[in-house]
Amino acid sequence: MKKTAWIFFVIGILYASYLLLLLSLPYLEMRRGIDFLKTKQFIYHIKHWRYSFYIHVFTSILIITSGLFQFSKTILSSYPKIHRISGFIYLTVTLLISGPAALVMSFYANGGYPAQTSFVILSILWIGSTFLAYHYVRKKDYERHGKWMVRSYALTLSAVSLRLYSYLFDVFHLRMDPTDLYILLSWLSWTLNLVAAEIFIRRGLVKRLLANR
Fold it and tell me: Which residues span the domain enclosing 21?
């Protein structure tokens, strides 16, 4: 990734993380009638869903920011310890905490079976790609590790793209039935990200990142 493009990418992700932080802060009150939870009144009493929701909300920013450090050539070559520590945080939190929580939540997603199916697939792919990234780094196969990290992080960013696409629909006044819109967004949020990840990989950008390793 060219330096200018990388800088804009980092700024964009950091700004998105800041917005997610602002959206997450109200949930510290642990009250059932806050923002998104207003649509979940009929399942808020289900403990495993409620715990999964708060876990996922409060770990999302940590995962997004720690994952971002994995794609800096400067950090990888000059500060490998930062790369390893942030990678450990990303893999551990995704595989053991936030990924399982996301999978639990996906079975209760708004939009019925179409949206639930989308989020179940997303969660399984997210956990699976992250596990393969872990598997290959353990085998010191850094190129495959890098490719699976790109896929994993693309799925991580579905939390950002979901909100971005929703915002764009509002900006361009694209009117749809709210349920149909949410179903559409649930699929667009991660499928387009995976397409972008595959383009990134096939253009050899992972190899370039590892070139001086």
Answer: 3-210
